Amino acid sequence: MDFDVVIVGAGLVGASLALSLKDSGLKLALVEARHYIHETEGWDSRIYAISPGSAAFLERCGSWKRMERKRVSPVLGMRIFGDDASSELRFDSEDAGLSELAFIAESRNLLHGLMLEIENQENLEVISPASCQGILWEENCIELDLGGRTLHSRLIVGADGAKSWLRAQTGFEASPRPYHQNAIVANFESEKPHQGIAWQWFKKDGILAFLPMPGNRVSLVWSVWTEKAERLLSEPHDRFCELVEEESGHTLGALKIITPPAGFPLRLLRLDTMVKPRVALVGDAAHNTHPLAGQGVNLGFRDAQELSRVLLGRGAQNDCGDYHLLRRFDRARREDILSMQSTTDMLQKLFNNEVPGISLLRNMGLRMVDGQGWVKNALIQHALA
């Protein structure tokens, strides 16, 4: 047997899973189609809100300390607004007895920390660049064809993203439901300081959010209907900045673009199961959700944590690909994923909706939650995981 576990996809989730198994005694391979090169110039438009629970996981993996900390910004509070002039929901880390609610970090900074730590991992072979060509089940293993090399492994894990090759090749039934929205991302320098606050505006035709970055910088995530997204992306940068300023009520003053806007389509993906005999899916390969809560990557990190916990606690079972063992992972992750997908799906439908009377109800709901301290604390505790 070549390996105990082969992980396909060396993104954030796949790399963190590999690191979480560094003391497992298992022989691992991490297969990635692209050659990793760390970019050092400018800022990355792919920004993530990392929960304290995910940060603690990355700390245990050894990668959190490897990151450039000057490029990480804490979230000290959140301001969420409805589509009228009076509805607001506020969260503050100090009121909750916390040092921060989350951390904002660039994708490439997170990945750089993971890859630096992986360089020292003795039980791991990184195979990159390598293109997966085919897969074949055998009696006691699964065979992965890389074109010039064939790997045999007890377990293959798909961490290869929303368009997962492994998911398609292994027969998982996937019927994603499009939101008919695109998320537009861009980074700006702002005239006014953000004070560590994450801002979010729910509107009838979309959801706009600012995430605080180091210095007077913010990252935009603006989810709008596809037709509007195409118009926005075609605007000159100066005009695009003006439109973002208007939509955000000039909260941070004038904006200067530092990474050009880019868009990607949004969809909901639910699978009946994340596992098959000798196969498990994690991260975006297993589930997609609306980005309005900023929890997509955190769901993926929790997948990696749980799968590593199951493999490390397998006891006398020496076959990592045993279906009954993998079912423990699938059952443990089901509630968390379904809860987040259902919540974000409901909020998207509730706010991006022009049915008469809905606006009154949704804005009233924001005000009611803001007035109930125990509800806010429950929401914060859920977001900390």
What this model shows, in words?
- Helix content is 32%, strand content 29%.
- It has 385 residues and is an alpha/beta fold.
- It has a domain at 3-67 and 106-176 and 269-348: FAD/NAD(P)-binding domain (3-Layer(bba) Sandwich), CATH 3.50.50.
- The strands form 3 sheets. Strands 1, 2, 8, 9, 10, 11, 17 and 18 form an 8-stranded mixed β-sheet that branches. It has a 7-stranded mixed β-sheet with strand order 6-5-13-14-15-12-16. It has a 3-stranded antiparallel β-sheet with strand order 3-7-4.
- Strand 13 and strand 14 form a beta hairpin.
Ordered list of secondary-structure elements with their pairings:
Blueprint: E1 3-8, H1 12-20, E2 28-31, E3 47-50, H2 52-61, E4 73-75, E5 77-81, E6 88-92, E7 102-106, H3 107-118, E8 124-127, E9 134-137, E10 142-145, E11 150-158, H4 165-169, E12 177-190, E13 197-203, E14 206-213, E15 217-225, H5 226-233, H6 237-247, E16 255-268, E17 275-276, E18 279-281, H7 296-312, H8 323-351, H9 358-370, H10 373-383
Parallel strand pairs: 1-2, 1-11, 2-8, 5-13, 11-18
Antiparallel strand pairs: 3-7, 4-7, 5-6, 9-10, 10-11, 12-15, 12-16, 13-14, 14-15, 17-18
* Poorly predicted sequence stretches spanning 5 or more consecutive residues: none
Q: For the CA atoms, what is the radius of gyration? A: 21 Å
Distance between the termini: 36 Å
Number of helical stretches of at least 4 residues: 10
Shape: globular
Q: In CATH's first tier, which class of the domain at 3-67 and 106-176 and 269-348 applies?
A: Alpha Beta
The CATH topology name of the domain at 3-67 and 106-176 and 269-348 reads: FAD/NAD(P)-binding domain
| Secondary-structure class | alpha/beta
Question: How many DSSP-defined strands?
Answer: 18
